[in-house]
Structure formats: structure tokens, C-alpha cells
Design goal:
Number of strands: 18
CATH class of the largest domain: Alpha Beta
Strand content: 25-35%
CATH superfamily of the largest domain: Ribonuclease Z/Hydroxyacylglutathione hydrolase-like
Bound molecules: zinc ion
Structural class: alpha/beta
Largest sheet: 7 strands, mixed
Order of helices and strands: EEEHEHEHEEEEEHEEHEEEHHEHEE
Number of domains: 2
Length: 308
């Protein structure tokens, strides 16, 4: 089975506190790494995670509050010092390129590798990237700045040849049959693909929703997602504060997971006022039982669904 897993590098809101760093995550899709947000200190935490982070090709920054991007300049600079030559693509709201360019210009740094910015806007379902491993779509979150969430979906795997039928398929036809084509025998007989193959497990998916007020408008775009990371900055006791700052409560995060029919919910972006996550977890669990609280440095693997 190929790997599809997310490591939460930073799970705190706003300030580095109580063992929680600002937002950053790395998604590993079959060895291809995607960085999602890049709060202060992200590169140290990438190093601590053991990830070969030179392999990060794409960075996604959802919005331009400092706790989601202040680590990016350091990472770009370190890639330069480490001799990176491969391209780096940053998908971010308008404004980030000017911030980074100013710092590079001021320090007279001429990067050894191509750095390209792609401007993103919050829009549900917009395709932001398609490569050999994943497609990435945007989500329109509701926050004090334009804020985009991200849905990562694995590219569909080829169909699997049935063990009892493999011998019927000549080697040179196997890729075509795995791609769904029927097999035509020498005498012209057509063997339907369904006799020869079984469907692969459905592609796995991961959604990242931070920062946002309760926004049911995203639900149709994250339906049946395997793992939903949703911010839960506060509990319902501070619902008023959540409304003012356009953040969510743990209960609201769970409501989104329930409405979307998500398989699992991962809470994060916790206010530093919470000594531990018990109260947030309990609040969410009452609405959506399959919930965990994310911790810095933890990896959450997303298993394939078994076909019944
Ligand atoms: Zn924010």
C-alpha cells in the first residue's frame, strides 16, 4: 500500500506556547511532500520530524496571518544554503511574493533554485494543482483575511489484475488492461475488463480547514473526506469570541465533519489558553465520535478504505 499521511508540525493558534507551535503540516503522498502553512520555526520541526524536506516541491499558504507563514522566509533561505537546485512552487494569497522578494532583495540573495509564486483566492472547488500523485482543490473559508482551505486527493490507482486471470493477459497488454481496456484475443474474442480486473481502493483524501468561522458552504466540497483537519480554536464557552475573531469552536468543527460525512476529524489550532485538549475533544466527540486532537510532531496515516 502506498503512503498517504499527514504530520502536524504546529497545532497552536497565534503564539508558540504550551508545546504547540504555529500552524504547519506536511502531507506525504507516496513519497511526494507537500507543505501546508509554514508558521515560525517550521524548518526546525521539519528537521525534527525526520522528513527529507528538500523533497518538498509545493508549499500551500492559506492566509497571511503571521502564524501561518512567518517560517517561510527561513525555509526558502535554508533551501538556498543547502544547495537546492530543484524548483519550489508557493501557492499563496496575493502579497506574499512582495514580502519574500523584499527580504531577498535587501539581503542580496540570488536563489540558486527557481522559486515561483501562484496567487490563490478562496474559491470552493478551484483546482490549484494536479501532479502525478495528487490533485489539490481550494476551499473558501471565512476569516478576517482572504483564507483558502485545501483538499488533497490521491490520483486514482490503476485497476488490479485478478490473480486467477493474470495468466490470460499477455505482458505487453497488462498496462492497458489495468487502465480499464478490454482484452482482444488473437481470434478476435473480446474479454471484458470486468472479468480480468478488480477496482482499486478509492483514492484517499485529506482536507485542511484553518483558519475559519463555521462555514457550511464548504461541506459539498469535502464530502466523505477520509481525514478532515479543522481548526477548533475555542470551546463553546467562548463562542462569542470565536464569532468576533472568525474562528471555530470544537463543536462547530465536529458539525462540519458530521455534515460532510468525514471518516475522521482531527482538531487543531488550539488557543494557548487551554492547558490540554480534553475539554475541546469532549465537546467535539458529543457531535462526531471519530475525533482526535492533533499534537505537534505526530503523524496521522490515512488508510485505504476496504472494498466490500
Ligand atoms: Zn488567522
Amino acid at each position: 500500500m502506498t503512503r498517504f499521511a499527514v504530520t502536524t508540525l504546529g497545532t497552536g493558534a497565534a503564539l508558540p506556547a504550551r508545546g504547540r507551535s504555529p500552524s504547519a503540516q506536511v502531507l506525504d503522498a507516496n513519497g511526494s511532500l507537500y507543505l501546508i502553512d509554514c508558521g515560525e520555526g517550521t524548518q526546525e520541526r521539519l528537521r525534527a520530524s525526520g522528513a527529507n524536506f528538500q523533497r518538498i516541491r509545493h508549499v500551500f499558504i492559506g492566509h497571511l496571518h503571521g502564524d501561518h507563514y512567518l517560517g517561510l522566509m527561513g525555509l526558502i533561505s535554508s533551501f538556498h544554503l543547502m544547495g537546492r537546485s530543484g524548483p519550489l512552487d508557493v501557492h499563496a494569497p496575493e502579497g506574499l511574493q512582495a514580502i519574500i522578494d523584499l527580504q531577498l532583495r535587501t539581503s542580496r540573495t540570488f536563489l540558486r533554485y527557481p522559486l515561483t509564486f501562484h496567487i490563490i483566492r478562496p474559491e470552493n472547488g478551484r483546482t490549484l494543482l494536479e501532479d502525478e500523485h495528487v490533485t489539490v482543490h481550494g476551499l473558501a473559508l471565512r476569516h478576517r483575511l482572504p483564507c483558502t482551505g485545501f483538499v488533497f486527493r490521491e490520483q486514482p490507482a490503476p485497476r488490479n489484475l485478478r490473480k486467477d486471470q493474470v495468466h490470460r493477459v499477455p505482458h505487453f497488454e497488462r498496462n492497458a488492461v489495468k487502465a480499464g481496456e478490454d482484452l482482444v484475443l488473437d481470434d478476435g474474442t473480446v474479454v471484458p475488463n470486468a472479468e480480468l480486473t478488480v477496482a482499486p481502493p478509492p483514492p484517499r483524501s485529506y482536507a485542511y480547514c484553518s483558519d475559519t468561522a463555521y462555514t457550511p458552504g464548504i461541506v459539498p466540497f469535502i464530502r466523505q473526506v477520509d481525514l478532515l483537519y479543522h481548526e477548533a480554536t475555542f470551546t463553546e464557552q467562548l463562542a462569542e469570541r470565536a464569532r468576533e475573531t472568525l474562528h471555530s469552536t470544537a463543536r462547530q468543527a465536529a458539525m462540519i465533519a458530521r455534515e460532510a460525512g468525514a471518516r475522521r476529524l482531527l482538531l487543531g489550532h488550539f488557543s494557548s489558553r487551554y492547558k490540554n485538549t480534553e475539554v475541546l475533544l469532549a465537546e467535539a466527540r458529543a457531535v462526531f465520535p471519530s475525533v482526535e486532537a492533533s499534537s505537534d510532531g505526530c503523524t496521522y496515516a490515512i488508510d485505504q478504505r476496504t472494498i466490500v
